[in-house]
Amino acid sequence: MATEMVAPELDAAQQPIPSYLIYETLNGRPLYRKGYKDVLANRKTPGEITGCRYLQAIIVSALYLYLGTQTDRKKYWVVTNEPGLHIQLGDNLSNDIAFYLKQDVTVKGKFFDVAPKVVVEVDIKVDFEAFPAKAMDYVYEKTQAMLDFGTERVIWITTQSRKVLVATQGETWLTLNWDATIPVLDDVTLTIADVLTEEGVI
Question: pTM for the whole thing?
Answer without folding.
Answer: 0.81
